[in-house]
Amino acid sequence: MLDISAIELQLKAKQSELEVRLRNVNNDLQRKSGPISQDFAEQATEVENDQVMEVISQETEAELQQVKHAISRLKKGEYSQCEICGGEINHARLKAIPYTAICISCADS
Ligand SMILES: [Zn+2]
Asked: pLDDT (tens digit, 9 = 90+) per residue, 1-41?
């Protein structure tokens, strides 16, 4: 049996962690839109950093959506049900990726 309440706690902890990270990254991105430095080498570094932060921001956002989705699936009692084939998601897989919504065979195909 899956320990639903433990999983919910785990997912909620992950959610707050991701929300904090997202806020920090976005704050950083906004600060960077201020005056850029005169030095060309420094400008290039700033642009590069921005691109990295942009990617981190998008990835964090996507992960956060998955975590939120998993929490709502948990509440509906559909947590271990594959969204594609409707089959049971292997519990070991859920332990490894707590916010997955598809079973191993659907993930593989
Ligand atoms: Zn499936």
From this structure: 788 999 999 999 999 999 999 999 999 888 765 666 677 78
* pTM tops 0.90: no
Cβ neighbours, 10 Å, residue 37? 10
* Distance from Cα 108 to the centre of ligand 1, integer Å: 9
- Ligand 1 centroid–CA 17 distance in Å is 29
Cβ neighbour number for residue 7 with a 10 Å cutoff: 19
Q: How far is the CA of 16 from the centre of ligand 1 (A)?
A: 28
Q: Where are the domains of the chain?
A: 4-31+38-108
Instruction: Please tell me the CATH superfamily of domain 4-31+38-108, with its number.
Output: DksA, coiled-coil domain (1.20.120.910)
